[in-house]
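Weekly structure sync - notes
Attendees: PM, LS, DV (DV joined late)
Agenda: review two folding runs queued last week.

Item 1: First target. Sequence and structure tokens pasted below for the record.
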Amino acid sequence: MIISPEIVQVVPHDDHTVSVYFVDGKIVLYDVKPKLNRGVFKALLDMDVFMNHCGIMNDTLGWDVSGTGDLSTCIDIALETLYALEHVANEKIAG
């Protein structure tokens, strides 16, 4: 049986990256910058949206860009994409 990784915390940073913490101890750094000028990701150019609407949504990293809490309209990143990233040794700490 394959068990999917579970995210326990996400911490956005002011450089458009997000630290993603998994229940098994793995920590990855997701960089949104390459996507910022494409489609729905343009909403994340607004630093308020990027920083304050970031969370765990649909069991993965996501942003509630509408501010309504409607999970069907959030921007989210595939869990498999996140877990495939390299573990970071010196993770950023929320400040």
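Item 2: Second target, run right after the first with the same settings.
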Amino acid sequence: MKKITFIVISLALIMVASCSAPKKDNQKSTETVETSNPKQAIPEEKNTQVASETVGSGQKLYKDKGCLVCHQLNTKLVGPSVKDIAAAYSGNKAGLTAYLKGEGKSIVDPSQASVMQPQIAITKALPAEELDAIVDYILSVK
């Protein structure tokens, strides 16, 4: 009975999540980042555009892979909100990546870690660039 209830709730949440439209962020910066060698200035616009594209693709993957079903932006549902995850792993990209690969421990809400375990198989199977994009998206949320 518990399994059936869990499956029904999961399917309902997936349907709700798949009906929402992703936001697009088209802001670009034109600042220049100075390197240790002043003759080699790296345009901030290019770095920002690459980061923005990674975050944008990560946001789409986050939605498409069903993460949104349990992890809303500001609201705790089944799992912690994206903002709570981003705050807990701020400056610790390697830690979040390790957790999603099944190689690390939950630091956001360890009491709920068992709920995420079935999903770890999905995140472990993701190609490295997709997982990296999802992690970048999560950590970009403020």
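Discussion on item 2: The chain has six helices and two strands.
Action: LS to circulate a short write-up before next sync.
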